[in-house]
Amino acid sequence: MPVPMTLWFLTALLCLGGTARALAQDVEAEADQEVRELQEPAPEAVELEMTSPTTATDEVEWEDSAGDEVEWEDSGEAKEGDEDHEEGPETFGDRFKRGDLFGYFDAQARFFPQIATSPVPGAPPLNNYWFNGSLAWEPGFFMNVTDNMNFELILFGRIDQNDRNRTHGDIREGFFELFFDEWTLGFGIHKVFWGVTESRHLVDIINQTDLVEDFDTDIKLGQAMVTTSYTSDKAGAFSLYVMSWARPLVFPGPQGRPTLPLPVDNDLRVYESRMKQGQIDTAFRWSHAMAGFDWGLSYFFGTAREPQLFPVTDAGGNPFALQPFYALIHQGGLDVQYTVESWLLKVESIVRGGQGPTFGAVTGGFEYTFYQVSGSIVDVGLILEYSYDGRDNNTFILFDNDFFTGVRLSLSDVGSTEFLVGSFIDAKDGSVFIAAEASRRFGDSWKILLEGRGYIPQANNVLQAFQNDAQIQVDIEYHY
């Protein structure tokens, strides 16, 4: 290496110089000791001692080793400084590279043990199949745009074997959110969830239900909006939403299952607003947690998410399809959850006007959890809720006077194995809808989900249209 060779060369010169100087000083010492002492100052004597042959070798070895080490440290510091100088302030590209990619792939199989019911008496059903397969992908990306702004993008798409209405795509999230101390501001496509009950979410009105994805109404479509919120430790959170371009509710098509009494034709949909989908919707919500209570008060004005369905007849007066009508509504909502020890007491209620006569609806009940049953790691939760809905306005409502009973089982194991079995029982005629779910993770990336549904309807109950649509569903998901 260049630096060590230079050090050795300088050391050799010092050694030769020191030897010559020592000989000259010996001669001068013999001639005149006093003159030598006057001519040779004390620092020179120190220099001679430091550069003596024995000491010089040790010092040179240390200097060589240290020289290499110092050279490496100095080189590293210089390089780091150079990088800082070259990079400068963190750029948008740097933050983009640090963004988080996530999502999952889903392979789904649905099995239907019974022959489908024809919506038209005497005509063969178009959806008479026992198996339906589909593939879905939900990719996501999260990025910290600035120290005060986040961006999240979540897309979704599914390809279905039989139902063309179920082959669809959606932007679940495409949302910027800015933070200013107690204030937040967001804009883009977003999903917002309101509610506390298990069986039905009355107050959850911001997003449209992705009904073709799952009939239980828990999966939602993205909604374009601008939102702001203010949060106070003492007063709670106040949120304002301004929305447009309300999404229509898409039902299973003629070749989809479950089977509807009549197909819903979205091409015939009608809006009460002259702006149609461009209607500006507004919503406000206050939420607060105190003394075991979680409170929520909300108000919504705009296009209804649940359309009224009116039959369309042919020239002979026979109905052949259902036409959706989206009215302008105003709705006030209340949701409360009270937690005390192992009890969760829940209630959701709404009052809505605009879809015919003003009506009210309520869902309430409790969930009690037995933790670590019999000394094991298993938790068992018991659920009981009641739902009442006072509307009679051609909206598609399955449970308007029903009890829901359920059992939730959590094994608390490595795979987060969970089971949920529940049933809706009509308080009037005893019709029953049964649903069961189970899920488990395998390794770091895989998850399997099992679902089963069955219908035991009585005459003239709306569930009668689905009595042959019992199904078993298997999903295998890969998460990344």
Structure description:
By secondary structure, this protein is an alpha+beta fold. The chain folds into 2 domains: 2-87, no CATH class; 92-479, Porin (Beta Barrel). The chain contains 5 helices and 21 strands. The strands form 2 sheets. It has an 18-stranded antiparallel β-barrel. Helix 1 runs antiparallel to helix 2 and helix 1 runs antiparallel to helix 4 (53-87). The two termini are 48 Å apart. Mean pLDDT is 86; it is low at 1-85.
Relative helix content: 10-25%
How many DSSP H or I helices?
A: 5
β-strand percent reads over 45%
Strand tally is 21
Unreliable residue stretches = 1-85
Question: What's the CATH architecture of the largest domain?
Answer: Beta Barrel
For the termini, the CA-CA separation is 48 Å
Query: What is the top-level CATH class of the largest domain?
Result: Mainly Beta
For the CA atoms, what is the radius of gyration?
Answer: 38 Å
Major sheet details: 18 strands, antiparallel, barrel
The averaged pLDDT comes out at 86
CATH fold name of the largest domain: Porin
How would you summarize what this structure contains?
With 480 residues, the chain is an alpha+beta fold. It is built from 5 helices and 21 strands.
Name the features.
single chain; 480 residues; alpha+beta; Porin; 2 domains; 18-stranded antiparallel β-barrel; 3-stranded mixed sheet; 5 helices; globular; disordered N terminus
What's the arrangement of secondary structure elements?
Blueprint: H1 2-31, H2 33-39, H3 42-50, H4 53-87, H5 92-97, E1 100-111, E2 131-146, E3 149-160, E4 168-180, E5 183-190, E6 223-232, E7 236-243, E8 270-271, E9 281-290, E10 293-303, E11 308-313, E12 319-326, E13 328-340, E14 343-354, E15 356-370, E16 379-389, E17 401-410, E18 418-426, E19 432-442, E20 446-456, E21 471-479
Parallel strand pairs: 8-12
Antiparallel strand pairs: 1-2, 1-21, 2-3, 3-4, 4-5, 5-6, 6-7, 7-9, 9-10, 10-13, 11-12, 13-14, 14-15, 15-16, 16-17, 17-18, 18-19, 19-20, 20-21
Helix pairs in contact: 1-2, 1-4
